[in-house]
Design goal:
Blueprint lengths: L1 H44 L10 E6 L5 H7 L3 E3 L8 E9 L5 E9 L7 E8 L5 H20 L19 H7 L7 E13 L3 E15 L3 E17 L5 E18 L4 E12 L4 E14 L9 E16 L9 E17 L2 E12 L2 E18 L2 E12 L12 H5 L9 E11 L23
Parallel strand pairs: 1-2, 1-3
Antiparallel strand pairs: 3-4, 4-5, 6-7, 7-8, 8-9, 9-10, 10-11, 11-12, 12-13, 13-14, 14-15, 15-16, 16-17
Length: 450
């Protein structure tokens, strides 16, 4: 009996040993499979493998686009949050058109093994188009541009191309329609704002009117704007303060195209402003501009140099520090501007210098810029700011400016310089792809909610 029990115990130990060995071997096999899968995934992510067994990875680079809409409507690609993980970088840029709309350029730039694949599609939106119509037009251009890149991926065999033919003769009829406005576009707006509290009230009125006509050879822009504002305050001692300001401006610009890189034009303006002690200021100046790159590339890169020489006439509300109630002088201006929108980031900068010819000491130099640069995967650097040397404030009044006008910024103080600066970093990390759209409780809900 004892021997039989020992035999059963030994048999159990042997069976347990065999089970433990089987578990160890299964665990090692799972680890090996996991390592192999991780290696294959890494190879696929680095672009060393083929894309036929997965979807195309797209980095969609558009600041003003509804990203959720694109992820819903174009679901046959994987959207990645970083350009370094993408097979294709899609960059969307835009600029205004003469009709008040916008022209969107969609650049398709292959990466890794697709670096030699480049393409560009353009979508033009009219001013009368709704946001939804603009969004749908961009989506259509995005889909069309993806076709040559997607055809060799897992989504390729599942795609289908359809064409909707226009009604017979519709294209010819549209082309033959006359434009009763002769390319002119007009815009107008008017508004008012009221704010009332127990010891403070504010009211303002503003309005604008503009007209423009743009062709390849000639551009005309006319703009008018006006704003009137009054604030009333009651202090703790019961005294009242009323402050009123106005700002009315008119501007006109005519530009002639002189080739792919040269332009010539005339700019004129009229201004009345409480803040800068101007009862009336009139400026007019012809100008010439040269573009280092052809104007056709302006949505992605542009470096321009502009020079103007004209007259400026001022009629002041109050006597200035120089004892003048009005004066007229010749002035010149030089401007160098750069704009870049590239896969590595974007740059916008302007260097502007102006001076009165009768006294070069009366001058102003401004440097403004903004840079956003992708330092590494998920890490972006943003720097913006401006600095100015100010020596041309002919309009500063002789009398001291009241404290309340300074606090309410109704009057501009005399200064030798202006400066502002901002720098920031942003870093994102986590899942490389996430194509899920969930809009629940994502909208704005009242001032006190959350």
């Amino acid at each position: 009996m004892r021997s039989s029990t020992v035999g059963r115990i030994g048999e159990g130990r042997s069976r347990g040993t065999r089970w433990r060995g089987t578990l160890v071997r299964a665990s090692l096999a799972c680890v090996a499979l996991a390592l192999a899968y991780g290696s294959a995934s890494a190879q696929e992510q680095n672009g060393d493998g083929e894309h036929a067994d997965r979807l195309l990875r797209v980095f969609f680079d558009c600041e003003r686009c509804d990203f959720d809409h694109f992820r819903r409507e174009v679901s046959f690609v994987d959207y990645v949050r970083d350009r370094a993980d993408a097979d294709l970088h899609v960059l969307v840029t835009s600029e205004g058109t003469g009709g008040g709309g916008a022209a969107y350029d969609v650049f398709f730039m292959g990466r890794g093994g697709r670096a030699d694949q480049q393409d560009t599609l353009r979508f033009v939106a009219r001013e009368s188009d709704t946001d939804d119509e603009v969004r749908e037009g961009l989506t259509r251009a995005f889909k069309l541009g993806l076709v040559p890149y997607v055809s060799g991926t897992a989504a390729g065999p599942l795609l289908d191309l359809r064409y909707t033919a226009p009604p017979s003769g519709a294209a010819q009829q549209l082309a033959a329609v006359d434009d009763p406005w002769n390319l002119w576009v007009f815009r107008t707006s008017v508004g008012t704002e009221w704010e009332v509290e127990s010891r403070r009230s504010s009211r303002s009125f503003d309005g604008s009117l503009s007209a423009s006509r743009t062709t390849e050879d000639l551009k005309i822009d006319l703009n008018s704007y006006g704003r009137w504002e009054r604030d009333r305050f009651e202090f703790s001692d019961g005294s009242m303060l009323t402050s009123t300001s106005r700002n009315i401006s008119h501007e006109g610009l005519i530009v002639w195209s002189l080739g792919p890189r040269w332009s010539a034009g005339v700019r004129a303006s009229a201004l009345t402003s409480t803040r800068v002690n101007q009862d009336l200021a009139i400026r007019a100046a012809p100008a010439v501009q040269y573009s280092l790159f052809p104007y056709a590339e302006s949505t992605r890169r542009q470096i321009t140099v502009l020079y103007s020489l004209g007259l400026a006439s001022f009629d002041y509300e109050e006597i200035t520090l120089f004892g003048r109630t009005g004066e007229t002088h010749a002035e010149q201006r030089l401007e160098v501007a750069a704009q870049f929108r590239q896969p590595w980031g974007e740059i916008n900068s302007v260097l502007e210098a102006s001076t009165f010819l009768h006294d070069p000491a009366l001058h102003r130099i401004d440097l403004l810029g903004r840079v956003e640069y992708r330092l590494a995967r998920g890490l972006n650097l943003s720097v913006s700011g401006g600095v100015a040397r100010v020596k041309d404030q002919l309009y500063v009044p002789r009398e001291d400016i009241a404290d309340e006008d300074v606090l309410l910024q109704r009057r501009q103080l005399g200064t030798d310089f202006e400066f502002d600066f901002e720098v920031g970093f942003s870093f994102t990390f986590g899942s490389v792809t996430n194509n899920v759209v969930n809009p629940r409780m994502g909208g704005r809900r009242g001032r006190r909610f959350f």
